[in-house]
Amino acid sequence: MIDRGMDLRSAPYKNAYFFVVNNADCSSIKFLQSENEFIVKVEDIPFVYFYGDAGNMEYYFLDESGNPLYP
């Protein structure tokens, strides 16, 4: 897994990604792909999410105000 910040991880798998959130400051994950935006709300900690067809995609772990959480 790739360390993306305090208790924030991602892992590529073929053409997809796994995301693991164990940081209470993270309220959502924002995905940008082909000029489309998709936001997944982090509801419970620990939170695990699978994003399929992740080709040419960017993502951000966001706090409650929508600010990115960086390492």
Topology:
Layout lengths: L1 E4 L2 E6 L2 E6 L6 E6 L2 E6 L5 E5 L5 E6 L9
Antiparallel strand pairs: 1-2, 2-3, 3-6, 4-5, 4-7
Description of the structure:
This protein is mainly beta. The chain has strands spanning 2-5, 8-13, 16-21, 28-33, 36-41, 47-51, 57-62. A 4-stranded antiparallel beta sheet has the order 1-2-3-6, with no helix packed on it.
Arithmetic mean of pLDDT: 93
Q: What profile does the largest beta sheet have?
A: 4 strands, antiparallel
Rg measurement, Å:
11 Å
Distance between the termini: 14 Å
Order of helices and strands: EEEEEEE
In DSSP terms (H or I, runs of 4 or more residues), the helix count works out at 0
Widest sheet: strand ordering: 1-2-3-6
How many runs of DSSP E, i.e. beta strands? 7
Which regions have little confidence, pLDDT < 50, spanning 5+ residues?
Answer: none
> How would you classify the helix and strand content by structural class?
mainly beta
Percent of residues in beta strands:
over 45%
Determine the fraction of residues in helical runs and give it as a percent range. under 10%
Choose one word for the global shape. globular
Compact description:
The protein has 71 residues and is mostly beta strands.
Characteristics of this structure?
globular; 0% helix; 71 residues; 3-stranded antiparallel β-sheet; 4-stranded antiparallel β-sheet; mainly beta
